[in-house]
Amino acid sequence: MIHRVAGQSPAFAGAVAAAGLVFTSGLVSPAVLTGSPRTLAEQAADVFEVLGHTLAEHGCLLGDVVALTAFLAPDAKPTAWNTAFATAFPVDPPARTTVTCGFVVAGVSVEISAIAARTETA
Fold first, then answer.
1. What is the Cα gyration radius of the chain?
2. What InterPro entries does the record tag this protein with (predicted)?
3. Number of domains in the chain
4. Spatial separation of the C-alpha atoms in residues 85 and 41, rounded to whole Å
5. Which of 7, 9, 17, 120 pairs as cysteine with 3 (C-beta 3.0–4.6 A)?
6. Is residue 122 part of a domain?
């Protein structure tokens, strides 16, 4: 069975669950979407909170994330991103890919997408 939850835009699902896995769409800081300026560290904290809520709708936790892709603005400080990532995943972090790119929405410094595995205890 395939299950979808609403995303940050009506144009796409926030996440889709199938075959025991949960795939999120790209997630950004909700504050930036409303025009509030945020540092990379603040945006990362926001986006990990959104990720946690999105996963919870599928019965998962941050600890269930097995792979994460991060997109950083070209001027983003990798050390700030690494610190935020380590805070969100202090033990047994998921596989990770990080790339730099431009964004359609002004002010976005970080966007993430993740894959989580549903566990029997989740």
1. 14
2. RutC-like_sf, YjgF/YER057c/UK114
3. 1
4. 10
5. 17
6. no
54 contacts 5 by C-beta, under 8 angstroms: yes
Rounded-to-integer distance, Cα 122 and Cα 117, Å: 9
Residue 27 within a domain = yes
Inside any domain, residue 25: yes
Tell me the per-residue pLDDT of 67-110, one tens digit each, with 9 for 90 and over.
999 999 999 989 999 999 999 999 999 999 999 999 998 999 99
String of DSSP letters for 44-90: HHHHHHHHHHHHHTTT--GGGEEEEEEEE-TT--HHHHHHHHHHH-S
Q: Please report whether residue 55 resides in a domain.
A: yes
Q: What is the domain-level CATH number for residue 9? A: 3.30.1330.40
Q: What are the angstrom distances between the C-alpha of 38 and each of 44, 55, 122? A: 9, 23, 32
pLDDT at 122: 42
**Inter-CA distances, 79 with 30, 55, 70, Å:** 22, 26, 14
In this prediction the pTM is: 0.90
Does residue 16 have a pLDDT over 80? Answer: yes
